[in-house]
Amino acid sequence: MKRTGMIAISLLIAVGFALLGCVTSAKAETIELKFTSSFSPRHTMQVKVFEPWAKKISELTGKKIKMTFFPGGALAKAPETYNVVEKGIADIGYYLHDYTPGRFPLTTVFELPFMVPNSEKLSEAMWKTYDKIPAFKKEYGKVKLLALFGHPGGHFCTTKKPIKNVADFKGLKIRTVSPAVTAALKIFGAAPVSMPITETYAALERGVVDGTVVPWEGIAIFKLDDLVKYVTVTDFYTVTMAVVMNKRKWDSLPDDVKKVMAEHSGIALSLACGKAYDAAEIYMKKKCLKKGLEELKFSDAGMQKLKDMTMPLRGQWVKDMDAKGLPGQKTLDTALEYLGLSK
């Protein structure tokens, strides 16, 4: 009896270890990916794109992938987003290129004035240009690029003085977002002031700046509609953005997971971001106008003058890229072709 009992106990222990091994194996199959973003958990991209995307990836991989979001800069502040992904502190990040000036020179072609038909078209052109130009691809060689996109065309918003023509820019302190926008504002006679969008409300409130460049979506999201009175619609610029993934983490994924993620990233994710931004722009514009903001537009002649004044910036951009040994003209021509704009 004793021998039989010992055998039974041994069998139970063996079964227990086997079951434990199965549970451990099941747990090992779930790969957690840390997704960092400096924006609010209620931000358009977070709610409308990234969370549904993560859910789809999880479902299509049989729940092998679990994405955990760290919004609001919980894992990394905005300027550090790219760095923490490259180093592997985060696995995936929603990143704005203007926080690392000089790191992605060819990408800045889309930051030039008047390069934004709409966010969806812009995002498509960004991905296709990246896919076609080897030097453009090389800019992202240290990470796995999952998406490229930008917000809809931004406008000029002011608190006191409306901008109705080019002459109205003279002397105004306008918050800028990129070297290209800074250069254009100087041409217009304005005084550009560089600062993050998160500091713009306080700057407008204190009179540090008279206005800012921002799309309708940004006006509402950052509550600038409490302060600005006038919005001069120009579709003037965009801020380029990306979703990047740690390269070592990507390489470590099983092939079937890579396949699913690849099929639902790239141009597919880029277009999803563009569509979401375009939809938000329509809604946020209505919200701002309902709150009492006044929408202004240049005359056709005034708008053409504004565009003509910025065209030399394209040639200067090409020269700057050539000086770096980069294919400036080819990149600009490719971008304009995919945007459907004249060269």
Summarize the model shown.
The protein is an alpha/beta fold. 49% of the residues lie in helices and 16% in strands.
Protein architecture, described:
The protein has 343 residues and is of the alpha/beta class. 49% of the residues lie in helices and 16% in strands. The protein is built from 14 helices and eleven strands. The protein has helices at residues 2-29, 44-60, 81-87, 119-132, 134-138, 179-188, 200-206, 216-221, 247-252, 255-263, 267-291, 300-310, 312-323, 328-339, and strands at residues 31-36, 65-70, 92-96, 143-150, 155-158, 173-176, 191-194, 211-214, 230-233, 240-246, 294-297. The strands form two sheets. Strands 7-6-8-5-9-11 form a six-stranded mixed sheet. Strands 2-1-3-10-4 form a five-stranded mixed sheet. Helix 6 links the parallel strand 6 and strand 7 (191-194). The chain starts with a helix and ends with a helix. Mean pLDDT is 92; it is low at 6-28.
